[in-house]
Amino acid sequence: TRPLIHRLLPLLQHDDVQINHSPGNDIPILHYTSVYVRYCRFFSEADATTADHNDDVCTPDDKLSLLSALARLGKSLSFDNSGEILSALLSTPEIDRFEVPRFHICQESPLSNLELARLGVMMEKSVKTVDFTPEFHYVDVPEAFYDSLANCIHLQALHFGDKPEKIFPVSKVIAGEDGNGAVERLLRNPHNQLTTLDLDSTDLEDHHLIALAPSLPASKVKVLILFFNNIHPHGFQELTKHLANMRSLNRLWIGNNPWTKAAPKVRYECGLALSKALAQNPSITEVSDLKVFPQEACRLLCYILSLNVGGRKFFRLSSTSSSFVLLSSSADGTLPEQ
Fold this sequence. Notes:
The structure is a single chain. The chain has about 350 residues and is an alpha/beta fold. Helix content is about 35%, strand content about 15%. The protein has 11 helices and 11 strands. The protein has helices at about 1-15, 60-70, 85-90, 115-125, 145-150, 170-175, 180-190, 205-210, 235-245, 265-280, 295-310, and strands at about 35-40, 75-80, 100-105, 130-135, 155-160, 195-200, 225, 250-255, 285, 315, 325-330. The protein has a 9-stranded parallel β-sheet with strand order 1-2-3-4-5-6-7-8-9, with helices on one face. Strands 10-11 form a two-stranded antiparallel ribbon. β3, α4 (about 115-125) and β4 form a beta-alpha-beta unit. The longest helix is centred in the C-terminal third of the chain and has 17 residues, at about 265-280. The relative contact order is 0.06. The model is unreliable at about 315-338 (pLDDT under 50).
């Protein structure tokens, strides 16, 4: 409503809102890091059924003031099924001055081609936006959006949400046999700044992962999330062939995939392939779901990860005292003979 917009504007336009204890002033001090626009729309003339409600109707100036404040927020901004307000934002000149560092869209109803094209342009130009989550149904998405996403070299974190029921053309968004996926094109750009790649629940299959993997070693990706996809042992082992050269990678989350349900012998082979990569790449210090590996492989993986965490040092409890003895390991991660 119009009164609510005017109450919100001081909070959105200033980082520190001071309490004014004068009579009639009830705007509290507010310290916040995120703004969630959730299931919201503008109060319109169609909602004004009585004369008392006429003052609640949002004027064009009211809407523009709110959209301008949101665009220049300087904090995390999330739109959750608030299509009217998101569409209004994408239709204003304010998208050329978008300063939101973390931007999350969760939209169940499809965005129009024009809105998606404008969103792509906004994200490509918004160098201050470093964390982006476009979580919506990718229905008839124009190529212009994918091209813009591939050019967002300023992004440091890219997520696609964790709702498995979303419509998601993996070969266009992430990677495909033609090498034209938006994410793989982004990773191939030597100027990209991506450090967190979250592909949770994106219908990623073995051939998608195999197509994406060669783009990862030269990237700056520190966190790779592959939860809840369709990765089988073949795709898992193909990924391990590239892990040794991913010198920026710290965390790999790859559980909740079909490979975790494979026969023990197959999971043991996956564990050995992973252990070889970890021994060759000490930058990897965290891997999820180690317990799904057979015990022998799990112990080996835990040992190598402990070496990586300790900087190729190994602590063990002395057999003669309660103190800890520091042993240096060799370059390949094996313990000294003593």
